[in-house]
Amino acid sequence: MIGAVRRWGASAPLVAVPVGWKLALLALLGASVAFIDRPWMLACGVASAACALMLTGASPRALWAGLKGTTIIVGCIGLFDYWSHGLASAAAVTTRLMILIGFAQAVTTSSTVPAMTAAIETALRPLQWIGLLDAERAGLTLTLAIRFVPLILDEIAAIREAQRVRGLDRSIVALAVPLVVKIILRAQDLADAIDLRGPPPRQGRQPVAVAASAESRAQRRAARRACGAVPYDVSALEVGGGKRGDTAP
Predict the structure, then answer these.
(1) How far apart are CA 244 and CA 234, in angstroms?
(2) Residue 2: pLDDT over 60
(3) Which residues are within 8 A (CB) of 92 and not within 5 positions of it... i.e. 6 or more apart?
(4) How far apart are CA 103 and CA 246, in angstroms?
(5) Which residues pair with 243 in a beta bridge?
(6) Cβ burial, residue 143 (10 Å; 0-12/13-18/19+)
(7) Collapsing DSSP states into helix, strand and coil, what is residue 238?
(8) pLDDT greater than 70 at residue 227
(9) What totals of helices (H) and strands (E) does the chain contain, helices first?
């Protein structure tokens, strides 16, 4: 749902709000909603979350598609809390969770990934100044994590379709094993791509030398070829009647 404003129009009221303000309000709400226990305050929170979702400009069907999975999980949590603590506690817990999920859905629907990454990097700059972390690396990690979510969902859909054809659609093992393998291979390809382009240099350090980076990539490819994970390296094939790197006599 992140960046859905591109499909439903950039004129929605919530889209005009800066991403930094939306993330700050979401963090403040997450820290304070746990202390809300009065029914009328929880009802106001639910109404506010519904209004925020409406201000994103997304269609109700699209909003429900993004909330459906989390609603099921919250329902299971509510049933467990009802069994262990009673109806009042279950109602309060599920209402708090739905308020947080509603506002988080509104923020992600009305924001794009680059804007959210830039806002988080800006918020982490003070921690970089005192040497606790690298804001650019943290932003890159966040972007990759967000990007992997739809990729994993696509892989699950493709694997389930293939297993359904084979009559294994009810087997959890038949879904989990190829999914884990595909995720590992995709993460390895992503690491190779980052090595090729070069990760953001750490503050106060020089970038890694090109020769050392090339040697690391060559060693990684050799290890993957030994495991049979990727085809043979094309640099070892003959080019123009001889192998690459051959010198004329």
Answers:
(1) 10
(2) no
(3) 37, 42
(4) 62
(5) 238
(6) middle
(7) strand
(8) no
(9) 9, 2
> 230-239, pLDDT tens digit by residue?
443 434 333 3
Torsion of CA 184, 189, 195, 201, to 10 degrees: -60
Cβ(58)–Cβ(8) below 8 Å:
yes
At 35 the pLDDT is 87
Whether 107 and 55 have beta carbons less than 8 Å apart is answered as no
The domain ranges of the chain are: 19-111, 126-197
Banded model confidence at residue 119, pLDDT cuts 50, 70, 90: confident
Residues 123/128/134/138 CA torsion (nearest 10 deg): -20
DSSP 155-214: HHHHHHHHHHHTT-TT-HHHHHHHHHHHHHHHHHHHHHHHHHH-PPPPTTSPPPPHHHHH
Integer CA distances (angstroms), 139 to 117, 136, 163, 200, in order: 5, 5, 36, 11
The model's pTM: 0.63
Confidence grade of residue 80 (pLDDT, cut at 50, 70, 90): very high
Contact 79, 59 (CB under 8 A): no
Is 56's pLDDT higher than 50?
yes
Which stretches of the chain are assigned E, i.e. beta strand?
A: 238-239, 242-243
Q: Which two tokens stand for residue 222?
A: 């050799």
